[in-house]
Amino acid sequence: MSRLRLPKVAKKSPAEVELMRQAGAILARTLTKLCEAVRPGVSTAELDELAEAEIRGAGAIPSFKGYNGYPAALCAEVEEVVVHGIPRKSEILREGTLAGFDLGCIYQGWHSDAAFTAAVGEVDELRQRLLRVTAECLDRAIAAVRPGAQLAQVCRAVQDHAEAEGFGVVRSLVGHGIGRRMHEPPQIPNFVDNGGFAEYDLVLRPGMTLAIEPMITAGTYEVRVDADGWTTRTADGKPAAHFEHTVAVTKDGASILTPYRCQP
Ligand code: MF3
Ligand code: CO
Predict the structure, then answer these.
(1) Which residues have a Cβ under 8 Å from the Cβ of 121 and sit 6 or more positions away?
(2) Helix, strand or coil for residue 182?
(3) Does residue 107 have its Cβ closer than 6 Å to ligand 1?
(4) pLDDT tens-digit series, residues 207-256
(5) Does the C-beta of 75 come closer than 6 Å to ligand 1?
(6) Ligand 1: distance of its center to the CA of 19 in Å?
(7) pTM for this structure?
(8) Any ligand 1 atom below 6 A from CB of 84
């Protein structure tokens, strides 16, 4: 029997968490502006430009650009795109669809990472419910964060809620620790039924900083990656939603470091 090794998770000092909160504040302002800019007719390339200008204007650096060769500041997640959609001039947001935006920045050496999905104009009941439930999955996951909790409780909070609503939980992509790097231990799955993650047994402690990001689908949880090597879509073409916050574990719970405003 092989034993999975519990990863070492860096704890940040209160001063370091405050720097991450500054990075998160820049990101949150940018995401709130993106949310206000979502409307039929706007291109995802325009939104990418807006995001990059806002981040650089605040003295921060867009962390996705150049990451493993990723070509933009923003990931645009239109309809069935779950994650990592490359913004394009020819990709125009259309009434009745979902559009998600994932963005990260580095400020004074510290990372933050967050995402939301929004309705473009009016959307049908299924899409409204998918948005609401995915946002609730993130809220419930964050509510499960407290010192002494096992990470599995956070993962289970997402899976239980999504599956009770008949939605799919993407298995091949997970949340992550975050700090001086965008991706640090632990991995944070949105499910608990797959084994294979030593992280489930991790006991949360104050100073841990986590990027929690449920990726929820209206149908199958299987995804496919386009020939561009990035754009990740649901295998059945049904819509997906993605919400993410960077949070810090505090002495009595979690503090959201990326408090953007974009309510479904
Ligand atoms: N936000 C993504 C994550 O949490 C990272 C985007 S990948 C990139 O892992 F290449 F676009 F940076
Ligand atoms: Co992330």
Answers:
(1) 39, 40, 95, 96
(2) coil
(3) no
(4) 999 999 999 999 999 999 999 999 999 999 999 999 999 999 999 999 99
(5) yes
(6) 21
(7) 0.97
(8) yes
